[in-house]
Amino acid sequence: MLSAAREIARAEKSKLLERAMQEAHARLDGEARRLKELQKVNRNVSVEEVRLAEQVVEDVTRPIAKARLRLDAVRLILKNA
Questions:
Q1: How many CB atoms lie within 10 A of CB 15?
Q2: C-alpha to C-alpha distance for 32 and 38, rounded to whole angstroms
Q3: What share of the chain in percent tops pLDDT 90?
Q4: 45-68: string of b/e by CB count within 10 Å (b at 16+)?
Q5: N or C: which terminus of the chain has fewer CB atoms within 10 Å of its end residue's CB?
């Protein structure tokens, strides 16, 4: 029973991590790209600003990529027969 639950959880974990990674990139990559493009035409945009935006993306996505599956609890439900 536990092994079946672990398999289901692994499948769900993969889906959740993929979705979380996509959402993180969708929300954060745009800012880094925008700053890079703006830097080409506006020298007031510093390399540090671009680096910081890229670092934010990395700081958010790194823990998502390293997420592990953990069994916190098991619920056993008995039905009177």
A1: 9
A2: 10
A3: 67
A4: beeebbeebbeebeebbeebeeee
A5: C
Query: Where residue 27 falls among pLDDT bands split at 50, 70, 90?
Result: very high
In sequence order, the 6+-apart residues with CB closer than 8 A to the CB of 1 are none
Span between the terminal Cα atoms of the chain, in Å: 20
| Structure letter (DSSP) for residue 68 | -
Q: How far apart are CA 29 and CA 59, in angstroms?
A: 12
CB–CB of 32/55 below 8 Å? no
Q: For the full predicted model, state whether its pTM sits above 0.85.
A: no
Whole-angstrom distance, CA of residue 1 vs CA of residue 5: 6
Tell me what the mean pLDDT of segment 5-26 comes to: 91
**Closest to 1 in 3D by CA, of 70, 73, 74:** 74
Residues across the chain: 81
